[in-house]
Structures are given as C-alpha cells and as structure tokens.
Amino acid sequence: MNIALLNQLREITEAFNRLGLRPVICGGLGLYLLFRDRPQAVRATQDIDLMITPSQAGQRATREAIARAILEELQYVTCEEGRCFRFMKVPARRLDILAPPVEAVAIEGGRVKLVRMRLHGRLTPEACFIEEDLRTIDLALLMPGSVPPGSLFVSVPSPANMLILKVFAYEDRDSDPRRDEERAQAHAYDIYLIATLAQLSDYQEGRGFLSRHASSDVIQKAREIVTTRFSALEQSGWKHVLASAAFHPGRPMGERREQLDLARRRLLRWFEEPRPVH
C-alpha cells in the first residue's frame, strides 16, 4: 500500500482519536485494511472514503469538532466538483466524506448536511447498519516503527457491510444516468475480492447480520442487485470482473472462469433468503 496514503490515514486517525472517535474507512483503503493479512492483493487506491456514522453525527458539538479537525487542523480544502464533501490536501491527497441518513440532520440534494456550508456527507442510505460488527485495527500493525502499538485505532466495516456498499456502488455505475464502465469494473472486482477472501467466520457473522435485517429495504435491494447482476456468469457483474486487468492475468480462460464461478457461488450463499423456522 502507498506509504503516502497510510500517512494520510495516520493523520486522520490521530485527529479523530483525539476527539475520542475512530474513523470508519470504506472504499479501496477499507478493503485493504479489512483483508490486509490475506494473500491476494487488493486493488490500489489513491483516496480515502471516510464514513461519518450515526453515533458520530448524533451530537452537533461532535459534528462541529469533526469539521474543525478536517478543515482547520488537517487543512483540507473543499473541491469545487464536490463542494463540502470532497476535499483535497497538498500533495494530491483526496478525502471523500460519506454518511447515512442521521436523525435531526438535514438532507438536501443527495447530501447529509453535517455542518452547513462546511462539512457534508455524500448520502449513503445503504450504510444505515454500518456500525454493526465494525472491525477495529491498530495502525501499528500497518506502520511498525512509525506508530507505537496501541496508540492509534481505525475502524472498517464488516465484510457484510462492505459487500452491501459495493453492490449498491456497482449498480449505480452499471445503470444510467451515472453509468461508468471503469468504475463499474472496479466495484465488481471488489465484490469478487470480498467473496473470495472472506473466511468462514466472516460468512457466519454476515449471515447473522443479513438475517437480522432481512425485512429492511436495504437488504432486500442488495439481494435484488445480486440476483439481477451476479447470479450467473453471463450477467454484467461477472463480465466486468472478467474484463479487469487485475483478475488472474495470464491464466487460461477456463481457469479464470472456474475462479469466477467459485466466487459467484460464495456470493450467492451470502445473500440466500433465510429459511423459515418451523
């Protein structure tokens, strides 16, 4: 992983930890943190997706403290193309803010207005359960020698929550009007990685999570996306994975399709409808 990106993460984590908070990291960096000890490489990323959770955004004073940390302490500057939720910092450090709906916080134009005119979160309704089964990571494991053990902690979503974020992101980029082949391919490859790298304990935890929320609109929609785009190798999701340059380059097509089908079957098991209890 890019050392500059890890240093950026360390700065954000230091600022959040001083507030008594742990940053929740999603996107490509979140996947890297989640599966950092697995043998298969996670795709490279150049930015940080930071999720502001309902518990972090519940109090106005905390929201304002987060805004001060990002804008004043860390000196991020808002980007014109994503004003108040997309930020830059020299040299070439990007930070995107996301948030699920939060009670008593205004939502306008696809944004959760955490601190009006200063800090918004890109509205992410599928993250409504993001705080369940969060994983905590000691940054000393990633930056030995630079970070003392037990001094800085970051959180990442569970594999189940990461899957939900990714299937929604994939559908968004595989549909008009926001269709984008390159981004759809990246999201599809991330879904493949999660299905492949998740361990039995991740699956069992995820099945429990999905069962608890089986009646929610978010879980039902996630199941629909998986069914319509990932239930067969001929569907768009797996076609995008197969087209990815990162997907087993140089291997025979038959072997690549076998790997794809294994991931397909694993993914479908995650999202099977719970069996009724008699």
Number of helical segments with 4 or more residues: 10
Low-pLDDT parts are none
Helix content: 40-55%
Helix and strand element order: HEHEHHEEEEEEEEHHHHHH
Nearest-angstrom radius of gyration? 19 Å
The largest sheet is: 8 strands, mixed
Protein structure class: alpha+beta
CATH architecture of the largest domain, please? 2-Layer Sandwich
Total domain count: 2
Average pLDDT across residues?
92
**What is the CA–CA distance across the termini?**
49 Å
Relative strand content: 5-15%
Structural write-up:
The protein is α+β, with helices and mostly antiparallel strands. It folds into 2 domains: 3-156, Beta Polymerase, domain 2 (2-Layer Sandwich); 159-270, no CATH class. The protein contains 10 helices and 10 strands. Strands 1, 2, 3, 4, 5, 6, 7 and 8 form an 8-stranded mixed sheet that branches. Strands 9-10 form a two-stranded antiparallel ribbon. A hairpin with a 3-residue loop joins β7 (111-115) and β8 (119-123). The protein is globular and about 55 Å long. The model has no long low-confidence stretch (mean pLDDT 92).
